[in-house]
């Protein structure tokens, strides 16, 4: 077949001087890719000779090809599967029209069952003025006969007579998914400098069979083409989200932050909400905002002395706070959920930090040492996390029921809002963002809280780039951290900067089963606009 195809292509070339792979495949009734393969095979025939320009002491490779090939790209309207069916059987609206009893009319309910696409057909037939609906929900014909233009157009397009359709008609048929605009990449072939209708293919491999049979002596072998580019090795590809995550991780590491262990998507309400002083009646704790786990429904292991202090600060207050004055219930705290923020992990880490401090304090108390040495026991920390969180959100073009939260946390003596603003400038400046503005906000677990805005040069407007705050005493004190230790923190999402970075408008083009994997393959490495100055 391949030899035959080669011969027919050369014969066609010899007569007409030009062959287009797609048109020739259609003419022969063979698969286009077979013709493309034959053309590429013929393209490799001929020889590449090194031309030495002795006078100039240089040389170049010149090819004496049998054929000359150019890539061609053209758009072609083609009928879809549904379009072919309509071309055969008639448009949905024509089918509905003919299903209406000419004399008595037909009940709309019955008409809707008369064909698979009756609903669309009814709507289009009404718009075309072919039928009408009376007060008894009966459909009547308004005209004696109809011309099924849609069917006629689809037959014309199917037969290659696209010129019969206007642009507006093509647009409407495309909207109805009856036609599609197909990009056809084909090859335009003309005679090469070394054209011949009979070519001896150059062998590309010297095989053991040739050596043993000795027929290698009669073969012509293709020269090595040292200018050819290597074959790209098949490899895996990082998803854009993971590329951007690497960049953010690098920024935090450069700033001396340590990554928190976030490998538990399931969290107890205690750590996700109660430990953060988020009251049990807070709307965010409802099922319409949070995913509750059916099995295992509850968590059972808590540091009970700490839990009692959390219960007390919610129900009675303490540490200067009046609390929420409600009947705090452990049953609510036990409920397992999909964590709604990685701040739950920050809470666990800060509690663990407080335990180290408490153990250190206990041992120093035994030795009656002063506060000075106590400071040796509480070591300031800088933590970060980047991982998935889940919220029962209303889905739209930019929101799914989950996203990756990026969170930074700094615990040190006497931190202030100024320290938070400073670390935010440092963090965002590493992303190339210089102009920040801060807007007072509210979070149940931070006071004060600020929304963070950055001026987007492209959009020429201020864009919210995150949220931040100072963790409340009602959160930190029950953990057992020293009274003069404060904790500042901030958060943002990974999806938003990734979508901006890669120019993706709909989050479903970035995440989910509909993602075009070619987008993952093609997207370059991520380099956020980093600056060295901090
Ligand atoms: O990421 C967000 N926006 C953003 C971030 C970066 C960016 O480009 C990069 C700089 C180059 C562009 C935009 N936002 C937070 C703001 C909005 O997109 C917002 O509409 C969506 N928010 C998510 C939550 O929405 C339900 C983004 C997500 C978010 C919000 C708050 C936090 C974390 C993520 C937090 C927090 C926090 C606060 C105090 C203490 C600890 C954590």
Mean pLDDT: 90
Q: Which ligands are bound?
A: ligand FB9
Number of helices: 20
- Number of extended strands: 17
Please tell me what the overall shape is: flat
Percent helix, as a range, is 25-40%
SS content category? alpha+beta
Radius of gyration: 36 Å
Taken together, the total number of domains comes to 3
Question: What order do the strands of the largest sheet run in, or round the barrel if closed?
Answer: 9-12-13-17-16-15-14
User: Mind telling me the CATH superfamily name of the largest domain?
Assistant: Bira Bifunctional Protein, Domain 2
The major β-sheet equals: 7 strands, mixed
List the uncertain runs: none
Terminal Cα span: 67 Å
Approximately what portion of the residues adopt beta-strand conformation? 15-25%
Secondary-structure arrangement, i.e. CATH architecture of the largest domain: 2-Layer Sandwich
Assign the CATH topology of the largest domain: BirA Bifunctional Protein, domain 2
Q: Which CATH C-level class of the largest domain is it?
A: Alpha Beta
Structure, explained:
- This protein is of the alpha+beta class and 534 residues long.
- It has three domains: 2-52 and 59-75 and 184-218, 2-Layer Sandwich (Ribosomal Protein S8, Chain: A, domain 1), CATH 3.30.1370; 78-181, Arc Repressor Mutant, subunit A (Orthogonal Bundle), CATH 1.10.10; 245-264 and 342-522, Bira Bifunctional Protein, Domain 2 (BirA Bifunctional Protein, domain 2, 2-Layer Sandwich).
- The chain has helices at 2-16, 21-28, 32-43, 81-89, 92-99, 108-112, 118-127, 149-158, 167-175, 208-213, 240-254, 269-272, 304-315, 330-334, 343-366, 371-375, 417-429, 473-476, 495-501, 517-522; strands spanning 18-20, 46-53, 58-65, 67-79, 106-107, 131-133, 138-141, 179-191, 258-259, 266-268, 336-338, 381-390, 402-413, 436-443, 446-456, 461-471, 485-493.
- The strands form five sheets. The protein has a seven-stranded mixed beta sheet, sandwiched between helices. It has a three-stranded antiparallel beta sheet with strand order 1-8-4, sandwiched between helices. The chain has a three-stranded antiparallel beta sheet with strand order 5-7-6.
- A hairpin with a 4-residue loop joins strand 6 (131-133) and strand 7.
- It is flat.
- The relative contact order is 0.09.
- The model has no long low-confidence stretch (mean pLDDT 90).
- Bound molecules: ligand FB9.
- Ligand FB9 binds at residues 343, 405, 407, 431, 433, 443, 446, 463-469, 489-493, 496-497, 500.
- Ligand FB9 binds next to strand 13, strand 16, strand 17 and helix 19.
């Amino acid at each position: 077949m391949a030899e035959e195809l080669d011969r027919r292509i050369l014969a066609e070339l010899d007569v007409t001087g030009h062959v287009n792979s797609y048109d020739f495949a259609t003419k022969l009734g063979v698969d286009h890719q077979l013709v493309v393969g034959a053309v590429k095979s013929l393209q490799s025939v001929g020889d590449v000779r090194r031309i030495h320009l002795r006078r100039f002491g240089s040389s170049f490779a010149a090819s004496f090809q049998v054929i000359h090939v150019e890539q061609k790209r053209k758009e072609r309207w083609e009928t879809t599967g549904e379009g072919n069916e309509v071309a055969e059987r008639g448009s949905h609206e024509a089918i509905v029209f003919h299903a209406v009893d000419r004399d008595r009319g037909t009940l709309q309910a019955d008409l809707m069952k008369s064909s698979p696409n009756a609903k669309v057909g009814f709507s289009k037939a009404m718009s075309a003025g072919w039928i009408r609906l009376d007060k008894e929900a009966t459909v009547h014909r308004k005209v004696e006969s109809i011309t099924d233009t849609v069917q006629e157009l689809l037959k014309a397009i199917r037969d290659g007579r696209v010129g019969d359709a206007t642009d507006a008609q093509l647009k409407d048929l495309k909207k109805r998914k009856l036609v599609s605009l197909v990009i056809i990449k084909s090859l335009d072939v003309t005679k090469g400098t070394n054209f011949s209708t009979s070519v001896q293919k150059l062998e590309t491999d010297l095989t053991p069979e040739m050596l043993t049979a000795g027929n290698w002596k009669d073969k012509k072998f293709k020269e090595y083409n040292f200018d050819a580019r290597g074959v790209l090795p098949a490899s895996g590809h990082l998803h854009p989200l993971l590329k951007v995550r690497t960049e953010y991780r690098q920024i935090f590491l450069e700033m001396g932050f340590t990554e928190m262990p976030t490998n538990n998507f399931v969290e107890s309400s205690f750590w996700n909400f109660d430990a953060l002083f988020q009251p049990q009646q807070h709307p965010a704790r409802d099922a319409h905002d949070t995913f509750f786990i059916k099995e295992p429904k509850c968590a059972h292991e808590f540091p009970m002395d700490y839990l009692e202090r959390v219960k007390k600060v919610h129900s009675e207050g303490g540490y200067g706070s009046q609390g929420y004055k409600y009947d705090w219930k452990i049953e609510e705290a036990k409920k397992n959920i999909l964590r709604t923020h990685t701040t739950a992990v920050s809470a666990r880490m800060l509690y663990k930090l407080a335990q180290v401090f408490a153990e250190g304090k206990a041992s120093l108390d035994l030795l009656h040492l002063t506060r000075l040495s106590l400071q040796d026991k509480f070591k300031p920390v800088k933590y970060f996390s980047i991982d998935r969180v889940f919220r029962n959100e209303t889905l739209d073009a930019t929101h799914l029921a989950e996203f990756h939260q990026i969170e930074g946390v700094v615990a040190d003596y006497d931190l202030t809002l100024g320290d938070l603003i400073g670390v935010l400038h440092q963090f965002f400046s590493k992303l190339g963002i210089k102009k920040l503005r801060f807007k007072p906000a509210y979070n149940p677990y931070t006071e004060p809280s600020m929304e963070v805005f950055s001026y987007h040069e492209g959009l020429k407007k201020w864009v919210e780039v995150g949220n931040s705050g100072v963790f409340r005493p009602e959160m930190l004190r029950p953990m057992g951290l020293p009274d003069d230790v404060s904790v500042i923190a901030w958060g943002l999402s990974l999806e938003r900067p990734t979508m901006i970075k890669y120019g993706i408008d709909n989050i479903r083009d970035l995440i989910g089963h509909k993602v075009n994997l070619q987008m993952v393959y093609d997207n370059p490495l991520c380099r956020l606009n980093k600056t060295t100055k901090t």
